[in-house]
Fold this sequence. Notes:
The protein is α+β, with helices and mostly antiparallel strands. The chain has helices spanning 26-33, 87-97, 107-120, 126-132, 144-160; strands at residues 5-11, 14-20, 52-55, 58-61, 74-76. It has a 5-stranded mixed beta sheet, with helices on both faces. A hairpin with a 2-residue loop joins strand 1 (5-11) and strand 2 (14-20).
Amino acid sequence: MNNLITISLSINGVLEEVSIQPWRTLLEVLRETLALTGTKRSCGEGQCGACTVLIDGKAVNSCLYLAVEAEGKNILTIEGPIEGDPALGIIQQSFVSKGAIQCGFCTPGMVIATKSLLAENPKPSEDEIRGALVGHLCRCTGYVQIVEAIQDAASRLEQERGG
Length: 163
Ligand code: FES
Ligand code: FES
């Protein structure tokens, strides 16, 4: 008996069938089974936010989320497509142009968290941005450029909507 079960996961709009042990986390399946290594593993215990993905539009720590629980839900990772929903690409451009990336290890989680924040709150205040980043650790930037990048992304997205 190999303990494997087969599940289907909708990742970035593509249905992926995987045979996995039922206790595997979504993070492990993304990185090790599907080679989607943009989602990072740092603490592995829900403290740092590096592994953040969106599940049905909600930011979650994929290191604490069993892959089987994600079956039937829509998973978005940093590799997600930008056609039809330019937010992911615009946020990434803002992180680059504002110098919000140094080693880059926290960046995928920060970008995904930003997508979730701006979908719910298109014009967040600085306090609201900082509140949304609680649980996202960056050892390099001191967060100032990250906050600026998120403000920049919010205004670029507003322009995109014709605001
Ligand atoms: S690796 Fe998941 S929160 Fe740190
Ligand atoms: S840029 Fe290095 S951890 Fe954030």
